Amino acid sequence: MESEIFKKEGFARERLIVLPRNLRVQLAADPFVRQLYLTDVGLFPHAHNHLVERSRGTNEFVVQFCFDGEGFSSFAAKTYKVSAGQFFVLPPNQQHTYGSSGKSGWKVGWIHLLGEGMQKFVDRLSVEEYGRAQDFGF
Questions:
Q1: What are the CA-CA distances from residue 15 to residues 19, 51, 69, 75, 123 (Å)?
Q2: Sign of the four-CA dihedral 77, 83, 88, 94
Q3: 49, 35 in Cβ contact below 8 A?
Q4: pLDDT exceeds cutoff 80 at 4
Q5: Cα–Cα distance between 87 and 80 in angstroms, integer?
Q6: Is 105 left (phi over 0), alpha (psi -120 to 50) or beta?
Q7: How many Å apart are CA 96 and CA 74, to the nearest integer?
Q8: DSSP code, position 119
Q9: Residue 25 in this model has a pLDDT that exceeds 80
């Protein structure tokens, strides 16, 4: 039996943009923009065997959107199922894991956010628990 290979990226038709460090520094210094800005944005339309494990998290808040298929999110010793039409939020600098489930994989999009107003943004999303999947609501 062949073992499955899991990967963080490198999927067919993937799209991702990651702002370079020098641009992030400029955004953080701008009085208007520093309230809330994107650092990463992407879409994996066909992510099979997708797995991201971050022992220290990222410097940004991560918002993941599941558009099709299903996956999971693990945070703070809890694992949650993530289905189509749901999203989850992960806080900065904390260990987390997420990925696709099953043979069909998932269609997943994400944004990484920074800024002084980030907590207000998360509060507006009515996030009940980090890592826990919630319906889009629209």
A1: 14, 17, 18, 25, 28
A2: positive
A3: no
A4: no
A5: 11
A6: left
A7: 6
A8: H
A9: yes
Contact 49, 105 (CB under 8 A): yes
Name the pLDDT band for 74 (thresholds 50, 70, 90).
very high
Distance CA 90, CA 127 (A): 10
pLDDT in tens, 54-68: 999 999 999 999 999
Query: Half-sphere exposure of residue 130, counting CA atoms within 13 Å on the CB side?
Result: 16
Are 42 and 15 a contacting pair, CB within 8 Å? yes
CA 23, 27, 29, 34: dihedral to nearest 10 degrees? -160
pTM listed for this prediction? 0.88
Helix, strand counts (H, E) of the chain? 2, 9
Superfamily of domain 15-135 in CATH is Jelly Rolls (2.60.120.10)
Q: Which of 127, 124, 123, 119 is nearest to 35 (CA)?
A: 119
Amino acid at 80: Y
